[in-house]
Amino acid sequence: MSSSLSSKSRLPGFDVAKIFAMFQVVLIHFSFYTNSFANTALSRAITSFTVTCVPLFIAVNGALLLNRSYNYKNHLARIIKYVILLFAWRLIHIAVYNVEGAPRLPLTDFLALAISGNSDGYPLGHFWFLYALIGLYLLFPLIKLAWDKERAALIPVCAAIAFLFCGVDFLRIITLLVNPFMYEKLSTFFGAFSSFNPLSSVGYLILYFIGGAYISEPYMSPSGSSSDERKRTGTTLPISALVLCWLVTAIVHEAQYANGSPAFGVDYGYWLPSTVIATFSLLLLFLKTNYQSGRFSSTTKKLGGSTFAVYMLHMPAIVMFAKIESGVLAQLFSGNLLFIVQLLSCALLYIALLLFGCLLKKIPLFAHFF
Q1: What is the pLDDT of residues 114-160, one digit of tens each?
Q2: In sequence order, what are the beta bridge partners of 122?
Q3: Were both Cys, which of 1, 180, 200, 316 would link to 96 (CB 3.0–4.6 Å)?
Q4: What is the mean pLDDT of residues 208-232?
């Protein structure tokens, strides 16, 4: 069954989703790399909500790609573009971190770092997303073929992924909440299921990729608008599901933190059942919202288009902010007040990066890097 739509089918909700997801990315990395980020129950709860950042990006990606016609040459060009951008931006990051004071690297370490990995003073871990995205794009022709011709074939694939990721680690979390001692004892048992997973540690992205397309399909048409106004109403269910899932995520993270996990970042967070439901609830909410203003749609399209630039620029910007700030905020404030000030600082930094990204995309020489 084919439901390929025009490449012009673009809803403002997709751009709002990307803007929201990118802020979550900046916030979690801000908590990791800035000085003395406030560690309170409130800050741990708020940062735990960022688990939907990557899943939401992938869901939007799947919605836009699977619900439009497939062109082999365009898709191949997309893959080549991202491979070039991946390594170009790794080199740019290495150069910037070196200027910001990171230790100089021997030639062999530099060459290894240019390809993958991290090193002291060179936080490049966030590039894992591009590696995963490129891998997903390599599988995309097969997924698209099944989506158009035999969609039912995707059901067992999604079910297997849901079990290997969501199901196994859901049981792991239940064990942690019921009996932390048993949780430690069974860690090897739960880890053994990874041997059945042929898709490596990021295979769960396929679930969001396909799920995003299913969620968004009723809201897209060849003309780029929904013909059924009822689809724009009824936000109570996604909002209720979202609040409930975020509450569950905060409780799970607090239990993990009490068991020795880091203060920020949820273990297995990207593929917990609560994250899956929260991600699709967010996407549904953004799609259901009726954006009447043409100016709003135009603005969100520009800002949504600059989120890739923010992704590439935010880590050096956070490192630079941390060096300039040098722990001053922690000397002036404490507790939840410190967290609120840091949250506002993160929001201002994000807004500045969004606007800077929009500016760079208008300059022909720099536009090629985004």
Answers
A1: 999 888 889 999 999 999 999 999 999 999 999 999 999 999 989 98
A2: 119
A3: 316
A4: 73
Q: Which two tokens stand for residue 253?
A: 């993270």
Q: Could you give the angle at which helices 154-161 and 128-149 cross, rounded to 10 degrees?
A: 150
pLDDT (tens digit per residue) in 239-279: 999 999 999 999 999 999 998 989 998 988 898 999 999 99
Q: 41-58 burial, b for 16+ CB within 10 Å, e for fewer?
A: eebbbbbbbbbbbbbbbb
* Number of C-beta neighbours around residue 168 at 10 A: 20
State how far the Cα of 340 lies from the Cα of 123, in Å rounded to an integer.
25
Give Cα separations from 319 to 88, 114, 190, 349 (angstroms).
19, 19, 36, 12
Interatomic CA distance for residues 45 and 251, integer angstroms: 8
* pLDDT of the residue at 288: 87
What single-letter DSSP state applies at residue 167? I
Instruction: Say if residues 319 and 101 touch (Cβ distance below 8 Å).
Output: no
In the predicted model, what is the mean pLDDT of residues 11-25? 95
Cα atoms in the 13 Å half-sphere on the side-chain side of 298: 3
Angstrom distance (rounded) from CA 38 to CA 47 = 11
pLDDT in tens, 334-359: 999 999 999 999 999 999 999 999 99
The tokens describing 122, both together, are 């060179």
Of the candidates 55, 63, 32, the residue with the CA atom closest to the CA atom of residue 249: 55
Residues sharing a CB contact under 8 Å with residue 57, sequence separation 6 or more, in sequence order: 18, 21, 22, 129
Helix (H, G, I), strand (E, B) or coil at 132: helix
Question: What whole-number distance in Å separates Cα of residue 67 and Cα of residue 6?
Answer: 8
- Output DSSP code: residue 126: G
CA distances from 36 to 39, 50, 210, 334, 359 (A): 8, 19, 39, 10, 32
CA distance 60 to 211: 10
Tokens of 109: 């370490």
Q: One-letter amino acid identity for 96?
A: V
